[in-house]
Amino acid sequence: MKLQQLRYLQAIARYNLNISEAADRLMTSQPGISKQIRLLEEELGVPLFQRNGKHLSGMTPVGRRILAYSDTILREVENIRSAAEEARDEQAGDLRIATTHAQARYILPPIVDAFKHRFPKVRVQIHQGTPRQIAEMLSHDEVDFIIGTEPLLASGQVIMLPAYRWTHCVVVPTGHELAHEKAIPLERLADYPIVTYLDGFSGRTKMDSDFRRAGLTPDIVLTAADADVIKTYVRHGMGVGIIARIALEAGHDDDLVPLETQPAFSENITRIGFRRGAWMRTYMFDFITLLAPHLTHEQVASAVQELDPEAVERLFANTDLPTGQPAWS
Questions:
Q1: CATH, domain 92-164+268-316, list 3.30.420.270, 3.40.190.10, 1.10.260.40, 3.60.15.10
Q2: Res. 190: pLDDT tops 70
Q3: Between helices 19-26 and 3-14, what is the axis angle to 10°?
Q4: Which of 267, 236, 242, 254 has the alpha carbon at shortest distance from 184?
Q5: Chain mean pLDDT for the chain
Q6: pTM passes above 0.85
Q7: Taking every annotated instance into account, which residue ranges of this chain make up the domain HTH lysR-type (predicted)?
Q8: Over the range 146-171, which residues count as b (16 or more CB within 10 Å of their CB) and which as e?
Q9: Domain ranges in the chain?
């Protein structure tokens, strides 16, 4: 049995049993992958895949079990490499982060800047995606951390730690009839056309719950994945905007007026997550603390020992989370 055979098995499962796509992703040939999978099946004496002619139609029950073991083995192989790399130079390596637009655009710039000053030899990769996409990146071991607000992964194999809290606010152009209001009742806000985030982005889930709790159905006329687009259409008069407060930039958004609501929108919590059992380089602990100062090495280590996601939440139940600060503050 070879590690490469296990990588081929993992890739075929990851890319929906499409051997051609798996071969493209691994930069090898389709016949080569097919041959190695046949050899693996012959060695094990069991079929790993169900076949319909020349095509794979599913995984056998034992194939799924062996895939799970393969994932663990390949993850430990990466941990061995990481341990050796750290022993050679603990100040060098890679830091791979998957996050959404709001975090990458408004929160991470000063944190990454401080991190690079502390660890100039570490290569930082930032992958942007939807909440579902960044969760998949972590499950496929393509990144070290995910940072997001919407519910991501509750699996016991993923540790999610609370990083900071933030709220939504209403934004209107300076000449808008609401611009001089101190706080807008939700009932009144619901009468205006609203421009805000797509479902599943930037706390939209909680915002929708706030309106439902008040018995209201807002008139959402346009949605977008990021606040820059929302602010653009607010400026064009499409409607009243609802965005994350962290997305307001001094000097750039002075033509927009932020407004509170009555009652206030619910707070959102942005979390940082990583896979249980992953090798944590020293600089990775430092990155977590730069993002969320209350997450010390000791507290992160304590969270790793907890197998129940709810137990992890209880560890930080009494923690006064910091408020997220935009990059310009």
A1: 3.40.190.10
A2: yes
A3: 120
A4: 242
A5: 89
A6: no
A7: 1-59
A8: bbbbbebbeeeebbbbbbbebbbbbb
A9: 3-85, 92-164+268-316, 168-262
The pair of structure tokens assigned to 297 is 């090495």
Count of residues in the chain? 329
Q: Is domain 3-85 classified as CATH 1.10.10.10?
A: yes
* pLDDT at 64 exceeding the cut of 80: yes
Judge whether 92-164+268-316 and 168-262 match in fold.
yes
CB 125 within 8 A of CB 228: no
The pLDDT of residue 78: 82
Q: What is the pLDDT of residue 299?
A: 85
d(CA 277, CA 76): 8
Domain 168-262 classification at class level: alpha beta
Q: What are 90-124's pLDDT values in tens digits?
A: 788 899 999 998 899 999 999 999 999 999 999 99
